[in-house]
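re: that chain from earlier
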Amino acid sequence: MKNEEKNTLILKWLNDELTPDELKSLEALEDYPLLSKIADYSQDLEIPEIDSEGVKTNLNQYINEQTNDSTNRFNLFKLAAVFLVLISSLFLIKYFSTPSMVTFTNVKAEQTVYTLPDESKVTLFGVSSIDFNRNEWEDGKRNLVLNGEGYFEVQKGSKFTVETNQGKVTVLGTKFNVKTLDNFFAVECFEGKVQVERDAQKTILTKGKGVIFNKTNVSEIDIVRNQPQWILGEYRYNKMPLNIVFNDLENLYNVTLETSEVSINDKIFSGSIIKDNLDNALKAICLPMRLTFDITDHKIVIHSK
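^ sequence. v structure.
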């Protein structure tokens, strides 16, 4: 078969315009098995939409330019290689362009429950978020990063790790709460067992136990509740740093506290946050701390007496 006739058959094959007799002639070509494999491979791939007419035009032009019989077969293999690279590249671009990082967020005065890929649940409180890699979870690596505060109900399975900027919590299947702020890291265990890591220190917590890392101080606590107090709508504190109490107040009432005029880093508070009345809540906290406050819209400025 002449080179021109061969090119015509290939062009019509690309356009799906072959008659039965022409198809038999194409199948009799020495190069047909290679062309057939390319077609089968491309049909199995899911690729983004491309300009098929443009590709076809360029391919037709490329084939028509091949006039030298001695080099035509070599050029056909070059064409096949380029075609395979194009199809593979588009497939990889589609696969790896799918976002793998997932972020769940929450805002002040809200509690939001999220379901993780393994059916574990996390309830976020106040300004909080979690981030995780979906592809890693599909491979059984249950790791996530927490900012803020979250209550976790973990399905049994492989190791489940919560990383924060203050430390790390590792479990297999349990219920626990993690709270992290600047220089503050607290973990409460409500079911099962958890391992808490901060710097080089490791602490094992069982049901009804908790640990608080406040700057360089570490204290273990007993828990009589079966859930975090913020889920139960309770806000009681025993020798809690005042900045932690103020943070809970901001998240509960959706307000912003300005404390630059006073030093609260070393102040310790014992008592409760009153719900449903911001003015009374502020008085219950500020009066025993010898502080005053001014309220403007959603901003509250704290002063010393």
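The chain is about 35% helix and 35% strand.
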